[in-house]
Amino acid sequence: MLSCGRLNKNLKIIARLCSIERTLIFHMGRHTYATEICLSQGVPIESLSRMLGHRDLRSTQIYAKITNHKIAEDMQRVESRIKNKFQLPV
């Protein structure tokens, strides 16, 4: 298994070959995986916590940045589920 340091060196080589000016590190990949791949696709944060190997959900919450797009999707899902269930008296 590659060490984190070796992975980061390889990422620097890849970034240079691809003309990526931003410094790439392995840790960034964990954040991207958590937010852009898992949470944006509806994976529950409890499952994501296990997938990342966290014992404490608070650790996962640090990784898990909720995007505005995800909030909008969740709001639409709630709205469609309750649309005909609640009505204000006229």
From TrEMBL:
Q: Which GO terms describe its molecular function?
A: DNA binding
Keywords, in A-Z order: DNA recombination
UniProt KW tRNA processing keyword: no
So where does this one cross the membrane?
none
Task: Describe the location of the Tyr recombinase domain by residue ranges.
Answer: 1-76
Gene3D superfamilies linked? Intergrase catalytic core
| A Gene Ontology BP annotation from the UniProt entry | DNA integration
Which InterPro entries does the annotation name?
Answer: DNA_brk_join_enz, Integrase-like_cat_sf, Integrase_catalytic
Q: Does the keyword Transport apply?
A: no
Its recorded name reads Tyrosine recombinase XerC
